Amino acid sequence: MSTELSGKLFAEARKLIPGGVNSPVRAWKAVGGNPRFVQRARGSQVFDADGNAYLDYVGSWGPMILGHAHPKVLSAIHAAMRDGTSFGAPTAREIELARTISQAIPSIEMVRLVSSGTEAGMTTIRLARAFTGRSKLLKFNGCYHGHSDSLLVKAGSGALTFGVPDSPGVPDALAAQTLVAEFNDVDGVASCFAKAGDEIAAVIVEPIVGNMGVVPPAPGFLEALRDLTRRHHALLIFDEVITGFRVAYGGVQTVRDIAPDLTCLGKIVGGGLPLAAFGGRREVMELLAPLGPVYQAGTLSGNPLAVAAGIETLAQLRHGDPYARLESLGAQLEAGVRAALARHRVRGVVNRVGSMWTLFFGVDAMRSGTDIPNVDTAAFGKFFQRMLDRGIYLPPSAFEAAFISLAHSEDDIDSTVRAADDSLSALS
Ligand code: PMP
């Protein structure tokens, strides 16, 4: 396949945009080669500038659960657009989206709409600090909650891929307020609380991790977090930016029946437009300006196009049983890839929850950030390139979640499994 135009565009972009991209992982540094410039996308496919088609497992990093360019979502955006694109004043549709979110996730008694997951994470932290009058946070190695200063410590995703878990520019004094524990390590969390329990404002966690690749919580782990935070009067924040409306309509918390104090949402809730949200207990949310003293604001917050896309996307997810379908497609893919690993005697493991999955090379299990150094990233790089040559577009890093959408067909999954089988044969 020719990728000449993508190559030219990347060279041009690099002159004007740092690294040629507006978000680091898009530059493919972890896998090598030039990123494809996307021209358009529809259903389960993306098409690059050279006209090549790929089956897409990036899904814009999570939002596109209905598939690309879903006609109903496009119509909703068009309809909203005819009335203007931004007002900086409240609109009726914002109430509808707030109500929909709160009905889907009962722990969210009040919600505020923002434009990115980073803003959501950053503000939940500010709220927790204000509510408790404490300043320390506890996060987990390999979990990513956006790039605000306090949370850019031992973060996953792009930060992990590039081996810069702590970014220059984050003051030491601020980073020192962030404690880091290992995911799935209840004893580690308990010992943080034993040492600094009355200083910890909040524990923030991806209840199923997506940002070191998919890592599910061990039985009892999330329950233990709820118990420890409650006992020490700290808040529990679930970052469901990926998992909200992805693993189930109401996110991990409704499936596991655990009510966090605050929740971050993003990605699916904005239907592919820039929208995220955070919400939770009324008494905490009531601290937000203009009701309370904790400041947070946004020129484009609650943008009418994004709100319309979010409302329609969530409405589509209430039709039929989309999560059963996603589970069945996910199971088909997992079984096929596991069989291919075994057939070619390639060491690796597939972690999957519903439609989010990661194939980790070089390990038999991936349970927490302590397993990260054992993952064979070189093998992933080779696999990624071979899959790409076969028309399969995976996330360009060994530590990311791949996403299946409702637009993927059984045939799409079959051809992905065949491509994986082929690609793995060269790795054995
Ligand atoms: N939290 C999680 C769990 C995420 O996966 C991400 C982004 N991948 C964020 C927060 C930050 O969201 P955004 O990129 O919209 O700022």
What is the number of helices?
A: 14
Which fold name is given in CATH as the topology of the largest domain?
Aspartate Aminotransferase, domain 2
Q: Which structural class fits the helix and strand makeup?
A: alpha/beta
Distance between the termini: 25 Å
Global mean pLDDT: 95
Task: Set down the secondary structure blueprint.
Blueprint (H helix, E strand, L loop, with lengths): L3 H13 L21 E5 L2 E4 L4 E4 L14 H11 L10 H13 L5 E5 L2 H16 L3 E5 L16 H5 L10 H4 L2 E4 L4 H11 L3 E6 L15 H11 L3 E5 L11 H6 L5 E4 L10 E5 L1 H4 L18 H13 L5 H22 L4 E6 L2 E6 L15 H13 L2 E2 L8 E2 L6 H16 L3
Parallel strand pairs: 3-13, 5-6, 5-7, 7-8, 8-9
Antiparallel strand pairs: 1-2, 2-3, 4-10, 9-10, 11-12, 12-14
The structure holds 4'-deoxy-4'-aminopyridoxal-5'-phosphate.
The site of 4'-deoxy-4'-aminopyridoxal-5'-phosphate has 17 residues, from helix 4.
Question: Features of this protein?
Answer:
binds 4'-deoxy-4'-aminopyridoxal-5'-phosphate, Aspartate Aminotransferase, domain 2, seven-stranded mixed β-sheet, 14 strands, single chain, globular, 2 domains, four-stranded mixed β-sheet, Aspartate Aminotransferase, domain 1, alpha/beta, 14 helices, 428 residues
Could you characterize the architecture of this molecule?
- There is one protein chain.
- The protein is an alpha/beta fold and 428 residues long.
- It has two domains: 4-69 and 320-425, Aspartate Aminotransferase, domain 1; 71-317, Aspartate Aminotransferase, domain 2, CATH 3.40.640.
- 37% of the residues lie in helices and 15% in strands.
- The chain has helices spanning 4-16, 71-81, 92-104, 117-132, 157-161, 172-175, 186-196, 221-231, 251-256, 282-285, 304-316, 322-343, 377-389, 410-425; strands at residues 38-42, 45-48, 53-56, 110-114, 136-140, 178-181, 200-205, 235-239, 262-265, 276-280, 348-353, 356-361, 392-393, 402-403.
- The strands form three sheets. Strands 4-10-9-8-7-5-6 form a seven-stranded mixed beta sheet, with helices on both faces. A four-stranded mixed beta sheet has the order 1-2-3-13.
- Helix 2 packs antiparallel against helix 11, helix 3 (92-104) runs parallel beside helix 11 (304-316) and helix 7 (186-196) packs parallel to helix 8 (221-231).
- The longest helix has 22 residues, at 322-343.
- It starts with a helix and ends with a helix.
- The site of 4'-deoxy-4'-aminopyridoxal-5'-phosphate (PMP) has 17 residues, from helix 4.
